Amino acid sequence: MTATIRKALLAGIFIGLGSYGFLALGGLPGAVIFAFGLISVIVMRVPLYTGMAGVIKPSQTLELLVVWFFNIVGCALLGLIAHYCNNFDETLTTMVANRLDDSFPEAFTKAMGCGLIIDCAVYMAKNPSPWGNKEAGTLLPVIFGVPLFIVCGFYHSIADVMYLTAHFQWHPEIPLYYLAIFLGNFVGCNIRRMCT
């Protein structure tokens, strides 16, 4: 379990780096830079909540929760760095306010969209296609998938920890919002499995 904790922490740091890059650059270029985080997770083979949620067995639920928790810790570390090292106040205030204005169903649905995209991107990067492409390992789905979920306005439950931590202000809506995106990511990550 210790190795899982260390690796999950590193995965959170990678996603934190990607989301930090998105904050720093913004727009479509920032969304492309964000892909570095997920590419690093795949290449380094470290566990990420949204990379695991669609492939675990029920017996691995505890492991998934451990991964999720330490992903959060790693990503929050980058959020603290962003808070103390850069002036993202206006950007973060708008971003966080927009997220917290969503109703539970809206946040859940946006997170579900992200979960579907991330699960499919990770799955395609790791597995040969059942429809003819016998080679696995292409990172193209990740390079296109990460910007896709960002430009669609979808929510990633680990990356959002970085934004919320960097914003560094408590809002009473945060727990319900976070529950919505945590569950939405999980459901979205399982759509591919339910349909294939």
- Number of separate helices: 10
Distance from first to last alpha carbon? 31 Å
Query: What is the structural class?
Result: mainly alpha
Principal-axis shape equals globular
Please describe the biggest sheet, giving its number of strands, its sense, and whether it closes into a barrel: none
**Can you count the beta strands?**
0
What radius of gyration results from the CA coordinates?
A: 16 Å
Query: What is the succession of H and E elements?
Result: HHHHHHHHHH
Multimeric state of these chains?
Answer: single chain
Fraction in beta strands: under 5%
Q: Mean pLDDT score, rounded?
A: 92
What is the secondary structure topology, with strand pairs?
Layout: H1 2-25, H2 27-44, H3 49-52, H4 61-85, H5 89-101, H6 104-126, H7 140-151, H8 159-167, H9 174-189, H10 191-195
Q: Which structural traits does this protein have?
A:
mainly alpha; 196 residues; globular
Structural summary, described in words:
The longest helix has 25 residues, at 61-85. It contains ten helices and no strands. The chain has helices at 2-25, 27-44, 49-52, 61-85, 89-101, 104-126, 140-151, 159-167, 174-189, 191-195. With 196 residues, the chain is mainly alpha-helical.
State the gist of this model.
This protein is an all-alpha fold and 196 residues long.
